[in-house]
Design a protein that fits this description.
The protein is an alpha/beta fold and 188 residues long. It is 37% helix and 27% strand.
Length: 188
């Protein structure tokens, strides 16, 4: 894997002060946000970019709230967030907005991706093992509700435990969360 790695810098946030580092994989520039030493069983969140949720605070999904949960958790307990640049479950921003339009017409999140000619989830996690090796991490506690993510990761480190992410639904994402649970097997 040909990856360019930035230096480490401080990242002060509303959640606390973290360290940040970038990993450039081709055209994609992924981020690692961490706090504390990354020894022992490291708490990690592998988070895929969601501009609408993470940046614009969209209520259509739970992505921004999951990222906030992870930042709070790592601020309190130490660990690492691997922020992967793969918008819209890997279909890109333009197609994600097209999927949103189909959802406005009544399709659910999975049906919309399929109608656009994609799989329900196009994300890839190849770079994750590279990053974990870079930090010399050998065992993790993974923050996720997505069992397919656990399978897809192909982790080359020991998975000690899953840390569930508890998010309250709202009127705009209630159906989205139900579909994630029913069609994609998400845990609570």
């Amino acid at each position: 894997m040909d990856i360019e790695i930035s230096k480490i810098a401080k990242l002060p946030t509303k959640f606390g002060i973290f360290q940040i580092q970038s990993f450039k994989e081709g055209e994609k520039e992924h981020l690692c946000i961490f706090k504390g030493d990354l020894k022992g069983d490291v708490n990690i969140r592998i988070h895929s970019e969601c501009i609408t949720g993470d940046t614009l605070s969209s209520l259509k999904c739970d992505c921004g709230e999951q990222l906030d949960f992870a930042l709070r958790y790592i601020q309190e307990n130490g660990g690492l967030i691997i922020y992967l640049r793969q918008e819209g479950r890997g279909i890109g921003l333009l197609n994600k907005i097209n999927a949103y339009s189909l959802q406005d017409e009544g399709l659910d999140t999975v049906e919309a991706n399929l109608k656009l000619g994609f799989k329900e989830d196009e994300r890839r996690y190849d770079v994750v093992n590279f990053i974990l090796k870079h930090y010399k991490i050998s065992s993790v506690n993974l923050m996720t509700n997505n069992p397919l993510k656990i399978k897809s990761l192909g982790l080359e480190v020991e998975l000690k435990q899953r840390i569930p992410i508890k998010i309250q639904s709202n009127d705009f994402n209630k159906e989205y969360l139900r579909i994630k649970e029913e069609k994609m097997g998400h845990l609570t």
